[in-house]
Amino acid sequence: MQKKTVPPRWDRTMQQRLARGEAAALGELYDRFASLVHGLAHRVLGDEHAADTVTRDVFAHVWQHPGAYDPRQGPLRSWLAALTNRLAVERLRTTGTAALARGGPGTTEDLERTVRHATVAARADYIVQSMPAPLRAALELAYFQRRDYRQTAADLGVTDEEARRRLRLGLQLLATAHDAGTPGAPPRIGGAA
Fold first, then answer.
1. What distance in Å separates the CA atoms of residue 187 and residue 181, rounded to the nearest whole number?
2. Cα 12 to chain center, whole Å?
3. How far apart are the two ends of the chain, measured CA to CA in Å?
4. CB-based burial, 101-126: b 16+ in 10 Å, e otherwise
5. How many Å apart are CA 164 and CA 148, to the nearest integer?
6. In 3-state terms, what secondary structure has residue 181?
7. Distance of alpha carbon 6 from the chain centroid
8. What does pTM read for this prediction?
9. Which of 36, 109, 118, 180 is spaced 20 to 30 A from 22 at the CA atom?
């Protein structure tokens, strides 16, 4: 018999508080995740005003539909990221389709390519933000400072083997950013959107 996973206490409690209509819970949720939501929306849309609108829409959706999140399906953070991605992609498609209808440049294929690229980029950002600090630090040294694994090991004060392990695992996690399923689908990062 498979053991049922128990959701983290904070996520479960937050969902219950939202379901009871506690405005303070929404404020807490906003304080904790607004920068994540806005950053992901901005990554998809590339526009500050549009990202502000999607951020507002995400938290309005949470407030209006607190039962949409099921803590047993994954972390609240992941569910919010998937919801943000879905709403941002919908907005990107809507504005892109409207621009095409007005005779703007490009084709529907160009729009879908843009949507796929934005989704993968947002997913990669989320993965990097969510990975454990030791993996993120190793990747940042290797990528941004162009360190090889030996230099990374020395900078981090770990063995060469540990540096290689961290880099390999970090890159494996990042590689999953391309596995987003159907174009425009929420990233597979947990929770039901």
1. 8
2. 20
3. 28
4. eeeeeeeeeebeebbbebbbebbbbb
5. 9
6. coil
7. 22
8. 0.73
9. 36
